[in-house]
Amino acid sequence: MKNTSNKITDEQLIEEAVSGNNNSLAELVKRYEQTIYNFAFKVCRNKDRAEHAMQETFLSMVKSLKQFSGKSKLSTWLYTIVSNHCLMLARSQKKYDYTSLENEDGLINNINIADWKFSPERLADNNELKSILDDAISKLPHDYRVVFILRDVEGLSTKETSEITKLTVPAIKSRLHRARAFLRNELNKTLHA
Amino acid sequence: MKKETTTCKEVMSHICDSLGEDLDSPKCVNIKIHLDSCPTCQKYFDSVESTVHFYKKYDVELDDEGHKRLLSILGLKESDK
Q1: Do A110 and B81 lie within an 8 Å CB cutoff?
Q2: Which residues of A touch B60 (CB under 8 A)?
Q3: Which of A19, A49, A58, A86 is deepest in the core (most CB within 10 A)?
Q4: What's the rounded Cα separation, in Å, for the pair A4 and A31?
Q5: Which residues are registered as beta bridge partners of A116?
Q6: Beta-carbon neighbour count of residue B11 at 10 Å?
Q7: What is the pLDDT of residues A68-126, one digit of tens each?
Q8: pTM above 0.95, yes or no
Q9: B44–chain A nearest CA distance, Å
């Protein structure tokens, strides 16, 4: 998560915001809104739900900023809140038929190995490709999806991911392994040349 | 001494396990040797790597209206910092 200002640290802004400075609070929101919105979209795969999760996250932040201990980074705290809001939203929606990833043997196979007809560079203006990516990740159970996004997409460490998701390090590693294999297989169904 | 053999399935599993990490253990060295000489596993490796890149590149931007709605919900004005 990028800190866009070199002048004032997050800690200073938090201290000022807790003391009632709304200008500092607005600056904190500005620093993290894009990252939180983007993360929420990557979990929810829907812009309206992502915006709703982002709004709920910052409402929670404003309400609980006094309780923020500063032991972890603000970004870690915000990822925790937004992950929980995304989970609540998912539960309130119609239940999706998630794929079970318990059978690891079925995830890794060397039967269908081929070059892919698209590269990530082709993504920008390709809505069909985006739809394929949305469909594939939507089949992942919520905790697998969050682990994959935090570790591989956002680039957080296993320890930070464990702190955010409240999963053990071995559980994170296992979910990441299975999520990668599952998504790769799903994309392979449509992207092979 | 019995020579350890590494199967494609083991290599593929290992790729999903340790993508992006430093691979310096003896097991990892065997995996790398296998990968260099096995086009099937190399293709698998490329496709797992591409999978991650696809999702990394798929970003959305919060537009100005979304930013304004957020500030309004929070009862805040634009920061001048």
Answers
A1: no
A2: 37-38, 41, 47, 50
A3: A86
A4: 6
A5: A192
A6: 22
A7: 988 889 999 999 999 999 999 888 876 656 677 776 666 776 667 778 877 888 777 78
A8: no
A9: 6
pLDDT digits (tens, 9 = 90+) for B29-52: 888 888 889 998 899 889 999 999
Non-local (6+) Cβ contacts of A8 within 8 A are A24, A27, B81
Q: Which long-range contacts (CB under 8 A, 24 or more apart) does A47-55 make?
A: A47/B60, A49/A86, A49/A89, A49/A93, A50/B60, A51/B62, A51/B66, A51/B69, A52/A89, A53/A82, A53/A85, A53/A86, A53/A89, A54/A82, A54/B62, A54/B70, A55/B69, A55/B70, A55/B73
The token pair that represents B11 in the structure block:
């290599």
Nearest CA-CA partner of A99 in A25, A157, A185:
A185
Distant-in-sequence, close-in-space partners of A85: CB < 8 Å, separation ≥ 6: A40, A53, A56, A57, A60
Query: Rounded to a whole number, what is the largest CA-CA distance in chain A?
Result: 61
Judge: B62–A34 Cβ closer than 8 Å, yes or no. yes
The closest of A16, A133, A46, A60 to A32, measured between CA atoms, is: A60
Q: Looking at the partner chain, which of B51, B66, B81 has a beta carbon nearest the beta carbon of A183?
A: B51
CB-CB neighbors (< 8 A) of A137 in chain B? 55
| Cα B46 to Cα A114, A154, B19, B21, B27, distances in angstroms | 10, 20, 11, 15, 20
In this complex, which of B12, B13, B70 lies closest to A58 when CB atoms are compared? B70
Would an 8 Å CB–CB cutoff place A172 in contact with chain B? no
What would the two tokens of residue A167 be? 């999963």
Q: Is B19 helix (H, G, I), strand (E, B) or coil?
A: coil
Q: Does ipTM top 0.95?
A: no
What DSSP element (H or E) covers A15? helix A10-18
Residue B72 contacts A, CB cutoff 8 Å: no
Q: What is the DSSP letter of A105?
A: G
